dihydroorotase
Amino acid sequence: MALKDSYLLPAAADMHVHLRNAPGPIAELVTPTIRKAGIDTVFVMPNLAPRPVVTVDEALEYKKALQAYDPEVNYLMSLYLHESITPDEIRKAKKAGIAGVKAYPRGATTNSQWGVVSFDPFHELLSTMESEGLVLNLHGEMPSSPTDNVTVMNAESKFLPTLASLHSKYPNLKIVLEHCTTADAVAAVRACGANVVATITAHHLSLLVDDWSANVHHYCKPSAKSPEDRRALLQALVTSEGKFFLGTDSAPHDISSKKGKGNTAAGVFTQPYALGYVLTALEEGIARGDIKEEQVTEEVLAGFLSEFGRKFYELGPAEKQILVKRDGAVVEESLKTDKVEIVPYRSGEKTWSVEWQ
Amino acid sequence: MALKDSYLLPAAADMHVHLRNAPGPIAELVTPTIRKAGIDTVFVMPNLAPRPVVTVDEALEYKKALQAYDPEVNYLMSLYLHESITPDEIRKAKKAGIAGVKAYPRGATTNSQWGVVSFDPFHELLSTMESEGLVLNLHGEMPSSPTDNVTVMNAESKFLPTLASLHSKYPNLKIVLEHCTTADAVAAVRACGANVVATITAHHLSLLVDDWSANVHHYCKPSAKSPEDRRALLQALVTSEGKFFLGTDSAPHDISSKKGKGNTAAGVFTQPYALGYVLTALEEGIARGDIKEEQVTEEVLAGFLSEFGRKFYELGPAEKQILVKRDGAVVEESLKTDKVEIVPYRSGEKTWSVEWQ
């Protein structure tokens, strides 16, 4: 076998999660699955509907509601970059321990209707974030546009000049290119200084465009791309050196938003089995020859799954350890209450399991 | 307005349709919608399940069953290229009026599991088709393969060297590259001699990858691609000169195959409103600047919708005429019997209507 049967690792940190409105039926179902996956720290995205999280008070209230579902998790809260946010609010955010401000290009994904059209009007805000040390989290896609030949397949690559320009304009601003999906993005992040990093999801380590073409549970934004792109992500993971770390972008949707009438909501739900999926994807990548067996060391896993994200967000090391074991888990067909049903990624399949030590 | 309010045209020919097994509940529902769209001649695809049409007798029996649903339509029948077909069967097919032999790369689309892995073993058959004047109809996609970096997005472009090689090996063989979807394919077909033509569907004149990413009713093989590709298809239509003509690839699937459990079946159902969709797509293409208003003449429409296909298959001109009128139709939400429900393309939207003269 390519990998060891088990790895003893520091508790994981998932630096990009969607938990939805709290209190609320999806948050109630999903939040308790975070620690099940071996994760003790999550960066919580602010794109709630009907109103995103734009004030520190809202973020803290949201955090309190999530703590009611699981007080053991460390929730890193964020604001949704919006013109209503003042430099004073940024300073208040830093003091209150808010971890980042998320920028959504308008129209690029779920609940991005309040998002950014141009970064120019945000100059003062970004400068304040730079001096305060508050992280900018980027959904790195241009909105699709037939006129500009932007589609879901090249939307990320077309965004990369914006990343480079933000980095050059605000060299001390800490930036995360969230859920990167392309070889282009991996190269662009590597080309930037140490302040620029990227998260990689679990599902983009195994999905291709073909997989989501016929399966709505595999459809997300940014969409999964080509075999070359997937190879670049796997390579980025095993050669990260702090530049790339886990952010699952786990995005729970009720099955009615996936299989019901009308268009399919974008998002892959990976929260309860996030680490298992990563390990399975690494095994498959080794089998395909995308990465080499010897590249997947305990050190690499600990860095990508736990240490690099914590370091970037200036947290201390994990206090607890987890044991990740081959084939210990079978993914549920769905997570279900009387109010919602959410189908997890690779439902019904075997994956690696996690035990808290 | 960009276009005239109505066009008097020869009855249309749809040189690529899926009518499914006959007798059968889908064929019973769909076949009577052919003439509703202003079409009197259809090329019927042979990829039935559980067994494709591989003998002349089967094709003629299938034809008879379709005639029972609508005797007024001229059904051009085809065989499914398969190792069980002999050169004698090809000669028999020509005598019996079979119009073509369809080649499916194995694994590329619906019911392609009996398809072609390599064309080399078919040398004698293809030579016989060449000398007999029987058309080769190509599903022009390589099967997806992570090893070879083939995905649904580049599968057609990767197939084009095979088209060029078949044309060079059998220069007198009449070849149709079915449902072409890319600028690459348009250029490749133009680069071949007069024996090589391509069909273009109605839906690929308006769909992009973004449209099918979140809407299962827009998902088909080959999948819709980029704005540049769509522009190339619209340009091919208005500058066809016989090289490009209508083949809708209308592919009815029960809603359970689209929205039910499991993966989504590939195919867009366009039969009852095929001409309306083409006219609507041309109007939208003019509005976007992909084509010019003056390029859409009565002559261009008559050629693409009716004359070029008939000429390629060596049929006489249409006997009847149709009047295609702006905004006369609203697409049904679905076509429904107690056995099946099929959602048509652009359901609920306005489109052009057709009247028989």
